[in-house]
Amino acid sequence: MQPRIQNTCVRDVITVTRDTTVAAAAALMRKHHIGAVVVVDERDATRKPRGILTDRDVVVEVVAAGLDAKTMAVGEIVQRPVVTVPASAACADVVREMSIHGVRRLTVVDADGALAGIVSLDDVLLELVGPLVAVGDLALRERRFEATTRPA
Predict the structure, then answer these.
(1) Structural domain range at position 23
(2) What is the domain-level CATH number for residue 114?
(3) Which residues is 10 bridged to in the sheet?
(4) Cβ pair 39, 49 in contact under 8 A
(5) Number of domains forming the structure of the chain
């Protein structure tokens, strides 16, 4: 059985709304040492993901264009539709969605479509590398066993 993304994703997600200024969003990224914030609509204590603002978006869309991050709203530059995966998705499904949509981060949602987490390509790679390392170590362990049980 493949690991579920709910066990890998970051659940403590830093969020902003479409009305948040780009400068305020960038300040949150700096404060929390992250490269992206999730843009949400908040209704009745439920956060529905609407997009992801990345540090690259800030640089390419605002800084490089000479725009004022203090007056520009996040909603003005987040154009790409948000890609979500259910918390029950397998890592392989997450990788497939990232590939199909050409993104490195996905929002994880619960059964009601509310934000449950965020997962990056780095998170998925860490999850998938562990079993590969264990398999790669088999030959070394076998040689060690042979060396102790069948001396030359």
Answers:
(1) 5-149
(2) 3.10.580.10
(3) 118
(4) yes
(5) 1
Calculate the CA 140 to chain-centre distance: 34
For residue 40, how many other CB atoms are within 10 A of its CB? 21
pLDDT per position as a tens digit, 82-94: 999 999 999 889 9
Q: Is the pTM of this model over 0.85?
A: no
Mean pLDDT of the 109-132 span: 87
Q: Which residues contact 8 (CB under 8 A, 6 or more apart)?
A: 91, 119, 123, 124, 126, 127
What confidence tier does 8 reach under pLDDT thresholds 50, 70, 90? confident
Backbone angles phi, psi at 47, to 5 degrees: -105, 115
User: CA 24, 29, 31, 32 torsion: positive or negative?
Assistant: positive
Look at the chain and count its residues.
152
